[in-house]
Amino acid sequence: MVRSPLASSRLINLLTGVQALVLMVVLFAPIAWMILASFKNRVDITRYPPKLLFEPTLDNYRELFIRTDFLDNTLNSFYVAGGSTLLGLALAIPAAFAISWHRLTWPATLTLFARMAPGTLFLLPWFIMFSSLGLAGSHVALIITHAVITVPIALWTLLPHFDGLPRELTESAQIDGCRSPQVLLWIAVPVVVPGIIVAVILSFIFSWNYFLFALVLSNIHSKTAIVASFNFIGEGVTNWGALMAAATVIALPPTLLTLLIQRRLVSGLSFGAVKG
Prior knowledge:
The chain has 276 residues and is mainly alpha-helical. It has helices spanning 5-37, 42-45, 59-65, 70-102, 106-116, 120-132, 139-163, 167-175, 180-191, 193-209, 212-217, 225-228, 240-275. The relative contact order is 0.13. Residues 268-276 have low confidence and may be disordered.
């Protein structure tokens, strides 16, 4: 029996819809459970089978922000993630421009080695170094250490954009008397703004969610939110409500940043196409 093209097209559309539905359930079901659990009391969270209809409560968020220092921890996360993102971009943008201009590969590969190495390899030397400088437990120490994460991400994100930059454009600027820093700031950077936006998103998210360096190198005044959230996990008992509330708060800034910057990314790409 030969199926008509219309029937085959409907079958393909049906299978595609089922596949998309399954992927959405797999991806978003844990997120939905986390958000709903943050509004449940402890009895409803651990109830089996799960209770879909429940009376929402804000007790978990009250405990999070009133009884603990989680608001200060969240601000610390903003300081560290924002500072390390800016530091990573300040180092990665000129490095990506130079690597792309001179057609080099080994400097970018070296940054990958630092990223692929286990984080525990850096902890003891950094702890000794920052302790001797009086910076142990400070935001500065965390920003510098998180740059090990943000620099490779930003560098490898920006390299394809700088590789796509027409050499005639930069060479004509040099003929007009611009030096390399001026070419970078006035010519190259405005063209690769979409790549910079992507680098900002990825660098911020990776730094925001990184746990190990903040766990070892922070103190009570610089502890980040993701480290503070583990205070709700005790020996033999876990405060699931407060933990889910903390997880929801931690997931919110990267999500909002991605949604907001995504529009600017699309507009930046359209602007570049028009200008081209």
